[in-house]
């Protein structure tokens, strides 16, 4: 007699959790869109869609870097602090022109990424500990460089934050371009395949002769550069450099977007389309609560619930 299959209830639960992990983020976006269409005033206006596109761009850009780190079975908690450091450096160097300010901000992101990657790759510090240390250190440096808010007086940056091309805001176009670049890198390049191999099994990747340390450093550098770019765009949108507030809890939003988008915390997998949908979900959730006069603390609790649900779905799927 053959072995009995799983009980019908267990099979249904397994199918439900598999569906939730694969398509849950898209269903969540659809539910929020339907709810807001029915109950939120002026939700379908062009101006509202423009606002949502501008606001989601920094979340999405940071989430792309977070997805790369999580794909290696790591994490980057320093992304919010890199955004704060970026806005401080922009304020200090904007007098020399916006392009130089952006370059200096990116160099700052590279420096944090190199430190994160070196701690993980060469010293063997756990990613959560290494990036936590840089989260505190980079934030402190940002506040030392710029202790208080400073207005952005450069017209080029203001135009970047508020301008558009054929009705599509510049920040959204930049975010879309970065999505295409990161997606191509993960799917079509040797670096992307090495990244996923390391996340799947770092010891096996080392035995196979892959440049594990170099790839890990590059991953955290990419995360730092993307966070610095998001800081630049957020500064342009706000019209001010404010390291005390910019980037606060961005790591929570980025992790939520990546995990709910189907990228496993166990590594070895990066879902770029899911990450995009996850960032849109977080932005829509935040906007919905704000438009219905609920306090910001509700957004944080909702994000925590989304993370728990996504991790539970991944855990249940991993048991099969």
TrEMBL record:
It is a multi-pass membrane protein. It is found in: Cell membrane. One of its GO terms (molecular function) is transmembrane transporter activity. The keyword Phosphoprotein does not apply. The keyword Cell membrane applies. InterPro entries: ABC_transp_permease. The chain crosses the membrane at residues 20-40, 52-70, 168-186, 215-234, 246-265, 272-290, 296-314. GO terms for cellular component: plasma membrane. Keywords: Cell membrane, Membrane, Transmembrane, Transmembrane helix. This is ABC transporter permease. It comes from Streptomyces tardus.
């Amino acid at each position: 007699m053959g072995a009995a299959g799983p009980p019908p209830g267990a099979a249904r639960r397994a199918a439900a959790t598999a569906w939730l992990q694969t398509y849950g983020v898209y269903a969540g976006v659809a539910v929020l869109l339907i709810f807001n269409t029915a109950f939120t005033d002026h939700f379908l206006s062009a101006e509202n869609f423009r606002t949502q596109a501008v606001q989601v761009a920094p979340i999405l850009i940071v989430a792309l870097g977070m997805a790369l780190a999580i794909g290696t079975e790591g994490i980057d908690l320093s992304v919010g602090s890199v955004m704060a450091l970026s806005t401080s450096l922009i304020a200090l160097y904007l007098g020399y022109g916006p392009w130089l300010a952006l370059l200096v901000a990116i160099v700052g992101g590279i420096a944090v990424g190199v430190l994160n990657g070196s701690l993980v790759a060469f010293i063997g510090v756990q990613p959560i500990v290494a990036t936590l240390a840089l989260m505190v250190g980079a934030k402190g440096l940002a506040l030392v460089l710029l202790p208080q808010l400073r207005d952005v007086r450069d017209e080029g940056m203001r135009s970047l934050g508020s301008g558009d091309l054929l009705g599509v805001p510049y920040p959204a176009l930049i975010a879309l371009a970065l999505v295409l670049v990161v997606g191509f890198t993960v799917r079509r390049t040797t670096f992307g395949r090495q990244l996923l191999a390391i996340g799947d099994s770092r010891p096996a990747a080392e035995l196979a002769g892959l440049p594990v340390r170099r790839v890990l450093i590059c991953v955290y550098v990419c995360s730092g550069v993307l966070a610095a770019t998001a800081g630049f765009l957020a500064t342009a949108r706000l019209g001010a450099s404010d390291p005390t507030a910019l980037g606060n809890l961005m790591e929570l939003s980025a992790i939520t977007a990546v995990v709910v988008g189907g990228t496993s915390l166990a590594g070895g997998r990066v879902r770029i389309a899911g990450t995009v949908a996850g960032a849109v979900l977080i932005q829509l959730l935040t906007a919905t609560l704000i438009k219905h006069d609920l306090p910001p603390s509700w957004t944080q609790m909702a994000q925590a619930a989304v993370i728990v649900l996504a991790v539970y779905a991944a855990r249940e799927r991993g048991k099969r």
